[in-house]
């Protein structure tokens, strides 16, 4: 730890370097903020550091909770890998682009504690004008390096708060946490180094918040830390008499990977405890002797949280879309994306409006994945696809015996499954009035009650709702509760139709052509310029979803349909749409029938969902089903 006399010349030298580098004292954000695949690669490369540091960052955050602090973890180059802290100050930091992917070195953001550590490799606390840029003068930063067993700085742990709230002991806490992280990282190297005594190893081994078991090459347990003993339910000496093949479902698969010199990693692996079966995430690493022969295997077990167990069983338990997957060259749409990013970490409800096919769920998933809830469940519910008699059970769950047909043990509702994460209520305008009252209570109080239960439970769920209806008009016509409308519409987000994003038609067409041809295992079809102009001139009542369907039709038939809009605003296909270049004379009805069958199969027979996917009305689809005898 540096004293003030030692610190002063270090900061002066840093300021001089910043001035020479041309760092602007009035800048607010780092000059370099990586994202997308580049950031994913950075996070993947530092996965061990991130996972090891996370519980200590959380513990550090608990110590200072409510005091307006936030913790940052960077790699050895100063790139932010993780951020935790109180909402208010963290939101302030995020607005200044102190987010994962931002570089905090001198070249990019001037003098700060993390930048000093990159140069000096020692813990430091600095405040106010000791920072180079003015935007940081309000803060005190306490930071400590995280070093590998060779003394190289591989990461930096930083705790930042307002200048008046920081104390010298803050740096002490950060140093203690960084030392603990270093010791945790050394555990993975323990079989290759003798720098730690057996007693030190045992203390570190037992302090790790995940289960660790070492075995010989045949799976016989050699050692287990306290967390592993607790997870499996055995007394320590009983666990040491076990073999992993008796405890793990896929022992042969693990052994095969280890024997081939690879590590093994599997999520939601079934483990046989003393009295029950449990789901764990497992990683296994071979340990070598000096002759490079495998001597031991180190297993790391992390128990799957109950909400994740449930969410993983549901298709809607995953959010796969992120903002970087949204294709647009329209400046207004880019502004909407920036607005969506800005509100991602708010606890307030979001109401996404827009025509069918504009990408409402894409935005909901992207908002979830841009927030601190990204590692928690994302649960989607289509309010228009569930009978009104069942929607309460779907949302709030039920107890065993609460009604005829209730399954044994009861059932968790979507809110319970989404606890800690996000629930997406699509087609909220279709929700029955009597359910709207109960939903309003959940949003206001955060409490749910299962059907058949008298007990209420608290859930921490971020609500995002979406509709293609005009909810104001629905309120005026008494089909939607006014109080629920205002409770949902705290953060409104309106998505424009594709006809107002004409410049996006060509890049979207290219994107769908590339992605769909790959997924369909078919070659890309070159689209002539005159047909591109036809796509631009068409008004796209089904929006982006309709454009995707047209591209899929082109890939499958290698011909170009000519679309016209009917008086009902539905897509009509000209009977003479087939290209003259086709090697065979294909019948439109056969193609349409095959396409309908394919879409209905994808939607598992759900007519409402299939009609939306096709961009037509349900009645129109029913007529086509009858026409082609697809019942």
Automatic annotation (TrEMBL):
One GO MF term attached to the UniProt entry: ATP binding
Domain called Sigma-54 factor interaction: residue spans: 326-556
Keyword Transmembrane helix tagged: no
CDD domains xrefs: AAA (cd00009), PAS (cd00130)
SMART domains: AAA, PAS
Keywords: ATP-binding, DNA-binding, Nucleotide-binding, Transcription, Transcription regulation
GO biological process terms held by the UniProt record: regulation of DNA-templated transcription
Membrane in keyword set: no
Domain PAS: 197-248
InterPro entries: AAA+_ATPase, AAA_lid_NorR, GAF-like_dom_sf, Homeodomain-like_sf, HTH_Fis, P-loop_NTPase, PAS, PAS-like_dom_sf
PANTHER family according to UniProt: C4-DICARBOXYLATE TRANSPORT TRANSCRIPTIONAL REGULATORY PROTEIN DCTD (PTHR32071:SF57), TRANSCRIPTIONAL REGULATORY PROTEIN (PTHR32071)
Protein name: Acetoin dehydrogenase operon transcriptional activator AcoR
